[in-house]
Design a protein that fits this description.
about 140 residues, mainly alpha
Length: about 140
């Protein structure tokens, strides 16, 4: 049985994303984060739940680098072992992720949380990360 929950690291796809990023060359982490986030924000079309979950995890890692609580031991370990600066490009892309998952158009992630009656709760849990990204 897979992991499932409301938090940004409470599902298998997000946990797999963190594990994949932790296995990456620390010097390449910035490019890896951008690649994961851009899979959800670029190209238009249907946003699948797995792409959205991974992108949200990456966006939260960027926000956590700015001081937001990652609320995940594996995310904290990744941040400690893979230094990167949450520069303007990373912050902007992370904000685009949060905008994209909140947009109901052609969005499986949004549909699933809406169907579960938990969209408002999940978006509220994302709010501190968005705030950290916007504060810089």
């Amino acid at each position: 049985m897979g992991a499932w929950g409301h938090g940004p690291f409470a599902n298998d796809t997000a946990l797999d994303c963190v594990a994949d990023l932790a296995g990456a060359d620390p010097g390449a982490i910035r490019a890896c984060l951008l690649r994961v986030m851009r899979k959800a924000t670029e190209g238009g079309g249907h946003l699948t739940n797995p792409k959205a979950d991974a992108a949200v995890a990456a966006a939260v890692l960027v926000a956590a680098r700015l001081g937001a609580d990652p609320a995940s031991g594996s995310a904290e370990e990744l941040l400690a072992s893979h230094p990167f600066e949450a520069d303007g490009e990373l912050r902007l892309e992370a904000l685009r992720v949060f905008d994209r998952v909140a947009d109901p158009r052609d969005n499986e992630w949004h549909d699933l949380w809406t169907d579960a009656g938990a969209l408002e709760k999940v978006l509220k849990l994302q709010a501190p990360y968005r705030e950290a990204l916007e504060a810089r």
